[in-house]
Each structure stands twice: as C-alpha cells, then as structure tokens.
C-alpha cells in the first residue's frame, strides 16, 4: 500500500556549496535531500521510500564547528510503499523452487509463496519447473499472481522487507 507521510530530515550542506548571496541555497538543500533520500532505501516503520513530493519547511541552519558545513533541519512530504498483513497485492514470479515460489511486488524483492499455501497446486518438475492445478492453471516464471499477505519481516542489515504470502482465499492466484 502506498502511504503519504511527513518526515523530518537533517540536510548537511558543505561549506564550499554555499553561495554568498544565498540564491542557490534552496536548490542545494533539495538536491542534497534527494541524494540522501535515494540512498536510504527503506525504513522499518515507513516502508520503502518512493518519492519526495513537497518540501514543507527549511529550518534555520546551524554551522558545524569542526567542518564549517551547515546543518538544515527540513520537513518534507513523501510517498512510501509498505505491505500490511491481510492486504491483497499482485506480484510477478521470478524464481520457482520445489517447495514454493519467490515473487516481486513493487520495491519488495523477497516475497515467498510456499507450496503449502497454494491449495490444489502441485509441483511439476522440468527444465524451469512450475506449479499446476487440476484446471491447468500454471504458476511459473514471469506469471502475475494475486495473493494475500500473511506477514512481513524487516531485515535491518539489508534495509529491506521480506513477505510471506498465500493463495488461500477467493479470487487469488494467477492473473490472466
């Protein structure tokens, strides 16, 4: 789900980037904010950081004593993406294993769908492998699947989320 959030941030502008007249200050702050925002990737409480939509306020700059750089507290509005338990989403299969499949959905790269959570589907071994049910519906690489989120887990070291999903429910499965 996409969320609109308001976030505080500290932007550090190097002393050599400051203009004597201050005309380029806002531009320098915005560019630095965008660079730092892109490097952050995700946060446990907010999800994946997708975009900065508006710069709400720029606080008074404070000069850092050792370096001469200036720290500006800013507040901005942004869009984030976070999966929630019970939410219906769509993803693309990118890896098929004997015990389940891995999907991608938006910025989330590690979504696991276990064979136990695919009612009526059985594994069909082959060159690339797939899951098939009695109605000849296939789950294989590059197939779009509608699923329900069972749970998510924040991985601090990788700064990303993992999700466990299921096809147990109405209108869930491969999307044609």
Can you walk me through this structure?
The protein contains 1 helix and 14 strands, in the order E-H-E-E-E-E-E-E-E-E-E-E-E-E-E. The chain has one helix at 25-40; strands at 2-13, 42-43, 47-58, 62-63, 70-81, 88-97, 100-105, 108-114, 122-124, 130-132, 138-139, 144-155, 160-166, 173-174. Strands 1, 2, 3, 4 and 5 form a 5-stranded antiparallel β-sheet that branches. It has a 5-stranded mixed barrel with strand order 6-7-8-13-12. It is elongated and about 75 Å long.
List the topology elements.
Layout: E1 2-13, H1 25-40, E2 42-43, E3 47-58, E4 62-63, E5 70-81, E6 88-97, E7 100-105, E8 108-114, E9 122-124, E10 130-132, E11 138-139, E12 144-155, E13 160-166, E14 173-174
Parallel strand pairs: 8-13
Antiparallel strand pairs: 1-5, 2-3, 3-5, 4-5, 6-7, 6-12, 7-8, 9-10, 10-11, 12-13, 12-14
Name a few traits of the molecule:
176 residues, mainly beta, five-stranded antiparallel beta sheet, five-stranded mixed β-barrel, 1 helix, 14 strands
Strands, count: 14
Q: How many helices? A: 1
Helix coverage percent = under 10%
Major sheet: 5 strands, antiparallel
Short structural summary:
The chain is mainly beta and 176 residues long. Helix content is 9%, strand content 52%. Strands 1, 2, 3, 4 and 5 form a 5-stranded antiparallel sheet that branches. It has a 5-stranded mixed β-barrel with strand order 6-7-8-13-12. A 3-stranded antiparallel sheet has the order 9-10-11, with no helix packed on it.
């Amino acid at each position: 789900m996409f969320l609109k959030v308001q976030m505080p941030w500290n932007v550090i502008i190097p002393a050599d980037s400051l203009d004597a007249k201050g005309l380029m200050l806002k531009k320098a702050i915005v560019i630095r904010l965008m660079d730092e925002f892109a490097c952050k990737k995700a946060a446990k409480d907010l999800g994946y950081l997708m975009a900065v939509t508006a710069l709400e306020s720029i606080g008074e700059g404070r000069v850092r004593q050792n370096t001469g750089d200036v720290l500006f507290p800013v507040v901005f509005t942004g869009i984030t993406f976070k999966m929630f338990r019970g939410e219906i989403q769509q993803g693309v299969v990118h890896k098929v294993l004997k015990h389940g499949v891995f999907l991608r959905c938006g910025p989330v790269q590690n979504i696991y769908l276990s064979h136990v959570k695919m009612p009526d589907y059985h594994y069909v071994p082959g060159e690339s492998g797939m899951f098939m049910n009695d109605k000849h519906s296939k789950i294989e690489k590059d197939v779009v699947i509608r699923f329900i989120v069972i749970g998510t887990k924040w991985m601090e070291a990788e700064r990303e989320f993992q999700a466990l999903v299921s096809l147990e429910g109405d209108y869930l499965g491969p999307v044609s």
